[in-house]
Every structure is written in C-alpha cells, then in structure tokens.
Write a structure and sequence with these properties.
By secondary structure, the chain is an alpha/beta fold. Helices cover 48% and strands 15% of the residues. The protein has three domains: 191 residues, P-loop containing nucleotide triphosphate hydrolases (Rossmann fold), CATH 3.40.50.300; 132 residues, Fumarase C, Chain B, domain 1 (Orthogonal Bundle); 219 residues, P-loop containing nucleotide triphosphate hydrolases (Rossmann fold, 3-Layer(aba) Sandwich), CATH 3.40.50. Helix 25 links the parallel strand 14 and strand 15. The protein is globular and about 80 Å long. It starts with 19 loop residues before the first helix and ends in a 5-residue tail after the last helix. The structure holds iron/sulfur cluster (SF4). The site of iron/sulfur cluster has 14 residues, from helix 6, helix 7 and helix 10.
Length: 639
C-alpha cells in the first residue's frame, strides 16, 4: 500500500495560480476527513486540476475510486487531458470517460431508427439476445487481454470509440468490460444520480459508494438533474407503440382496453388545447376514474401483468418490454400519488405545427437523490463558478454529512480593470411594461452598447417572446446600421445548425465590425458555451429570466414553502432566474486576461443585486436613466 502522498506528487504544472495551492491543501485535508466540499471559483481558475491533485493522494493511499461527473463532452475531455498530464511512471492512472449508449453504439440499424433512449435500450437488448448485433458478438467472442492493455492510461470516450471501430467491437459494452480496472471514470450525472444505473456502475467498478470520491463539475445543475431522474413521462406515441406490441402478442384483453382508454383520453385532451400548456391533475382521482371507467382494479392488474411476464419465454418478454415499462409507470404513479413531493399533470407541447401530449410525474424534492449520495460517498467535491452556497446546501443537503462539510470560496482571478458591469435604470421587461415605447428605449440602450463594443456583442433575452419583440421593434435595423452581422438563436434549432451559427458568430469576432448574437438566458448558448477574447466583448441580459408561472412552477414554490420554511419564492423562482442571468453574464469572461462588459438591461436587477455572482457584483455600477449613460461608461473601456 502507498502512504504519505501529497498533492505535490500529482500536481503536473511548474507553478500555481494565485490561491490555488491553499485551495488544494484545504480540499486534500477535507477529503482525508471524509468531508463534503463546495468550491466556488470563477472559470479560468483551474478547478479541474485543483480537484484532481487534491483527491488523488487519498484515493491512492486508500484505494478509492474517483467518479467525476460532467455535463458536457468538452468538460469530460478537460478532465482526461489533465489526467494525461498527471500520468507518470510512478502513478499510472487508469482513467476513462464514458458516454451514453446512443453515442457509443456502432449499429447502424439502431442509430438510423432515431429511437428514444428507452426504445434504443430495448432494441439493443433484443439485438444482443438474438445475437443479431455483429459488434456485440465480435466483442463477446473475440476480445483478448491485449485489448485491455491499450487502456492502462487515461483515455477519452472518442479514443475508445475509435479503437472499437477498428476492432468492430461494441464500445458501450467494451467500456463495461474494462471498468473494473479503472481508477477514475468520467461520466454524466445520470450514472450516479439514477440509483439503478449507479448500482450497475458500482458493480462493474467492483466497489461501493463508501469507497468512492465523487466530483461534481458545474454543480449548479445538480438540483435540476436530481429532480429529473425521479420524474417520469408517458407519451401518446409510447402508448401507440404499446398497442402495436399488444396486437402481436397474447395478453388478456383488459390490457388492450387499458391502453386504448389512455390513448383516447390523451387525444381528447390534446385536441381541446391549441397551445403548449401543462394542466394540473389530481393523481388519486385520475386513478379512481380510470378504475371505474374500465371496471378494473388497476393495481391488481399491474401485479398480474408481472406474473404473466414471468411465465413468458424470453423472446415474448422482450417483445412486450414496453408493457413492462408502462406497468412500472403506473406502479410509480400509485406509489407517489399521495406524496406532496410530486406534481402530476398533462403536458401539451406545440412545436412546428405539431402537438404532443404526455402524462407527467414531476419530482419536486432534489434531496431524495442528493442526500443518500452525499452522505454515503467517502467525500463529494462540488465545483462551480456561480452557485450561492446557502441556496445550494439548503436545496441539496450537502452539509448534512456526519463527518462534516467544507465551503471554499475563492477570490476572483479577474482584474477589476477588465470588467465593466452595469445595471441600467429606466427599462424593464416586466409584463405590464412591455410596450413599443419600452422596447424602443431598450433598443436605444442596446445601440449604445453596440456602438462602443469593438467586435462581438451577445443579447441574451429573458424569453423568446422578448427576443421576437425586440426584432419587431427594429433591433435588426440598428445592428445593420452599425455594420455588425446578426446571428439569431431559434428555439427548435438542431444541435448541428446551432453549432454552425455559433462558429460563424465567433468567426465574425475576428472581422472588423463583429456580430450580435441574439439568444435567450437558460438556452444552450448562454450556458455551457465559452466565448473568450473577441468571441464576445459585451453581453446584455435583457430582462430577468423568470420562468412563466405555470401550474408546475407554482407547485414547486408551494412545495418549497413547506419544505424550506416559506422560502418557496426565493428558492424555486427568484434564485433559478438569477442563476440563468449569472450564467449568461459570465460568458465573455472565461480566461484570466479576458476583458468584457456585462450589461443588466432591467432596473429590477438593482433590488436583486445580492443574487448576482460575487465577482460581477463587486464591479457593478448603476447607470441612471439618461441619454448616453452607457456610452459614457463604455467609451474608452477597450482602448
Ligand atoms: S450491442 Fe452495442 S453496438 Fe450493438 S446495438 Fe447495443 S449498443 Fe449498439
């Protein structure tokens, strides 16, 4: 066994950034004491290597596994790149980044079918059991110990996929075979938040939660992810597929009646509403009505279905797998229908002239997922640039570990002279104030920003409605007048089309006048995408990005009021909106030397200032409602 290691054995660079060494020491000590940690530090401070070099000594000494959770491929690749730098003749770290089945599958018939994740899982299992997937068969029959010797150093998912392509192995299952050798795995939140996936992964890693150090990157996403994994959805299209399965197989007629009933119900509901909407329903009454109309005891029929399944041959069970999922949805519904921690609704979405409907069970309590994870891991390190520690530990229970909790708030690495942060008075996107006069005034203020900015500007609006209203009120002409290109984000844009849009926008940043990116807060371009240097010089947050007060938002506020001592509005409504604004506001300042202007274009930000990220808040200046108020402050900033 290795002993007496320190972060210096793993830190791969010649020098530390300001404060970095002290932070590493604090994390290393806290991990040894099995404490949970929250590190709040703006981007550009080297959080990944800080966390890795701090936890590796304890992981090596106590033979612990490290599970590093990331949301995007870019973040996962960053972890593997740092591990490659740490890898040495003394510490031959085996680290792997993993992706989901849809990204690791090589089987064209499955990929071309454009299946939902659930259907893809079922089809894959069908193909494997019938020995019809050549990649799985080849892996199963031809893999050799030599294959695994290629993976004795840090490798990202793409390298693993390339290797498997050459060998014609299924990358998804190849990963599973080599996991038990890995000391560090990099994967998405689902792998640890979903209890059944977590169980499988820990088994494959040949370990238990108590022997794992979990690192959560960009942990401000934890609350959303934790509630998502406990939420369930039953779509009309899924029910129609169930019906097709039932037509092919022998199950008693009550199951077809059951599915027909649900299809008719959802179709009727969908036809009665012309726009996207969620309609609250009483889950208990819903069940009672359904039982009465069908003259059956739903719970008993679901239990019987389980018994039928056990009697069927494996092939039939696979063919009827959707019915099994349907049964689980209703067993879940029955189990949760009296819990105040869940919200039940019909959810209708109107997209591109197409309407879809689903029955949704929405989880409201994130701690059901986070507390068991945070309590049982050896230590859990939460990394973020924007989270408010009080809100985070309240909503997740990070501080409720018996061995303790450590909060580390790093100083901003950015210099004041490189940040201009302004809150603009005299404008607001409050619903009652959204008039052409107000939009014209907002556009005048936006024009001042555009005029003073050397290259790229981004305008992240509170909603697509505000984005459209700005265009209708003449924003496009103003942008053209100043010789900048306009790049508009659209709600239904495909990932690849959006990537082209963002690449073009960044390229315009290298041209003489630059461009304006028009998007929304909380969208894919205002979070997760970095715009260092001239990729974005100024960002405007047009309005406070509150979500619509839908029945679901209302249910969350009410539940939080009960669960968190009347703090529902703050925790469930105001803070998430400010988080979206903070995320968007941080986009132009990603590296220590970046210089950027952050404009909060709504006077209501003044009273919400305490929820703006620390490193921005300390630079904030309030701009009174006057002509050229912005110009006066921005002119000369980039000279
Ligand atoms: S076994 Fe692998 S390659 Fe084959 S369908 Fe499943 S995921 Fe795809």
């Amino acid at each position: 066994m290795v002993t007496n290691l320190s972060y210096m054995d793993f830190f791969p660079y010649h020098s530390f950034r300001p404060e970095q060494q002290e932070i590493i020491r604090e994390i290393e000590l806290s991990v040894r004491l099995k404490k949970n940690i929250l590190l709040v530090s703006p981007s550009g401070a080297g959080k990944t290597v800080t966390a890795l070099s701090a936890i590796l000594p304890q992981a090596y000494e106590s033979e612990l596994k490290i599970i590093y959770l990331c949301r995007t491929h870019t973040q996962s690749d960053r972890v593997i790149n740092e591990l490659k730098k740490i890898y040495s003749s003394k510490f031959k770290i085996i680290g792997l980044s993993l992706r989901g089945r849809s990204e690791m599958c090589l089987n064209f018939s499955l990929l071309n079918s454009k299946l939902t994740p659930m259907d893809a899982m079922l089809t894959c299992s069908d193909l494997r059991i019938n020995e019809s997937c050549k990649y799985f068969n080849k892996l199963h029959n031809s893999r050799t110990p030599e294959d695994f010797s290629h993976f004795t150093s840090p490798r990202d998912a793409q390298e693993l996929i390339e290797y498997c392509k050459e060998k014609e192995y299924c990358p998804y299952y190849f990963c599973k075979y080599i996991l038990n050798k890995a000391q560090i795995i990099v994967c998405n939140f689902q792998w640890m938040f979903n209890p059944s996936i977590r169980f499988q992964i820990l088994n494959l890693l040949a370990t238990c939660l108590e022997d794992c150090i979990v690192v959560i990157d960009e942990c401000h996403n934890v609350v959303d992810m934790a509630t998502k994994v406990r939420s369930h959805k039953l779509t009309l299209s899924f029910l129609e597929s169930c019906l097709q399965d039932l037509e092919k197989n022998i199950l008693p007629s009550q199951y077809s009646r059951f599915v027909h009933y649900l299809i008719d119900l959802l179709k009727n509901k969908c036809n009665r509403h012309a726009t996207s909407i969620s309609i609250k329903l009483d889950p208990f009454n819903f069940l009672t009505n359904m039982s009465q109309c069908l003259e059956m005891n739903i719970a008993t029929e679901l239990d019987r279905l389980d018994i039928y399944f056990q009697k069927f041959p494996i092939k039939t069970r696979i063919e009827l797998n959707r019915m099994r999922i349907l049964a689980r949805f209703w067993q879940n519904w029955i189990e949760k229908c009296k819990s105040e921690r869940y919200f039940f609704c019909y959810h209708i979405i109107q997209k591109n002239n197409e309407k879809t409907i689903s029955l949704d069970v929405v989880a409201l309590e994130p701690r059901e997922v986070t507390i068991p994870l945070f309590r049982h891991t050896h230590a859990c390190i939460n990394l973020t640039g924007t989270v408010n520690p009080y809100i985070y530990k309240t909503l997740t229970g990070l501080d409720r570990k018996y061995s303790g909790y450590k909060e580390i708030i790093a100083n901003s690495p950015f210099q004041s002279k490189n940040i201009k942060a302004l809150i603009i008075e005299g404008v607001s996107t409050k619903l009652k104030k959204r008039t052409p006069i107000m939009y014209n005034k907002m556009i005048q203020k936006i024009e001042e920003v555009i005029e003073c900015t050397p290259a790229n500007v981004a305008i992240f609006c509170a909603s697509y409605e505000i984005l459209r209203d700005l265009i209708l009120n003449g924003l496009e002409e103003i942008i053209k007048k100043h010789g900048k290109k306009l790049c508009i984000e659209e709600p239904e844009m495909s990932g690849s089309k959006n990537a082209v849009l963002i690449q073009n926008y960044k390229n315009y940043g290298k041209s003489r006048n630059g461009a304006v990116l028009l998007g929304v807060c909380g969208g894919r371009n205002s979070e997760g995408e970095d715009y260092p240097g001239n990729d974005m010089n100024s960002v405007i947050i047009a309005g406070i990005p509150y979500h619509l007060l839908t029945p679901q938002a209302d249910a969350r506020i009410n539940y939080y009021n009960k669960a968190f001592f009347d703090q529902g509005w703050l925790l469930g409504y105001l803070y998430p909106a400010m988080q979206r604004a903070n995320q968007a506001a941080g986009r132009p300042i990603r590296k220590v030397k970046d210089k950027g202007a952050i404009i909060f274009l709504d006077s209501r930000f003044k009273s919400k200032k305490k929820w703006i990220s620390d490193w921005i808040r300390k630079e904030i200046e309030i701009v009174p409602d006057e002509i050229n108020g912005i110009t006066k402050r921005l002119k000369g900033f980039w000279l």
